[in-house]
Amino acid sequence: MAGLTGRMSTVVKAKVSKLLDRAEDPGETLDYSYQKQLEQLQNVKKGIADVVTAKKRLQMQEATMQQNVVKLDTQARQALAAGKEDLARTALERKQLAQNELQGLDQQIAELETQQQTLTDSEQKLRAKIEAFRTKKEVIKAQYSAAEAQVRISEAATGVGEQMADVGLAMQRAVDKTEQMKARAGAVQELEAAGTFDDLTALGPGEDDIDRQLKEIGVGSAVDDELSRMKAELGTGAPSAPALEQAGAGGSDAGASSSLDETIASLDQAAQTPPPAAPPSEDASTS
Length: 287
Description:
- The protein has helices spanning 2-23, 26-81, 85-158, 162-193, 209-234, 241-272, 282-286.
- With 287 residues, the protein is mainly α.
- The longest helix is centred in the middle third of the chain and has 74 residues, at 85-158.
């Protein structure tokens, strides 16, 4: 179970890494890094300001304590002059404590000054580093933009880009469909010329080429059977075909000859008959 969990974790991390790699923009990453470095520089400046503020406060306390030391020394002198030795001793004791505190303040102020100098040096180095990074960042962004533009131009020119590949595939599919349609049209024309296809809109039994061939075979067989039967009948005493044809030819010639003679006789009779007399005119009857 532990091995399966580890494998799933590795696969998920790999998928997420791949997605992040796709979504990552080098220009945005460089700008983000530059922004973070500027924030660090601001934090260093803020630290220097805090150190300087603490040093100023200690220096103010030191000045106040020095004034207090001078004041206690004066009071001790005045008390001793007035014959009050105990009071003078107390003033001197307070003066000693103040001087001890002054020594501690001096040490703290020195440490703060050292820390301030260190932070100031670090701030200058960081500033120079950030400035160099900014210049390099702009150069890298310009180079990346140029390379990206070159890749897009090359992909568009060669057709290997994602969008151009989709367009190329669509064009190839269109060409394939066109070639397939042309081949189908040629095949239909060839089959139609060969008589394989009938008119699907015509009324009829819907026979195909195989049915027609089988039907022709059947008709040929029936004709052969009928011809054999007729030959058999003629061989048993029936009039032969040449005799029947000659008789028919003679009868038709005789009928045609008699019809021609009748037509000629009627024409001769019409020519010999005189025309009928004309009726008397109206002028002759009145005279």
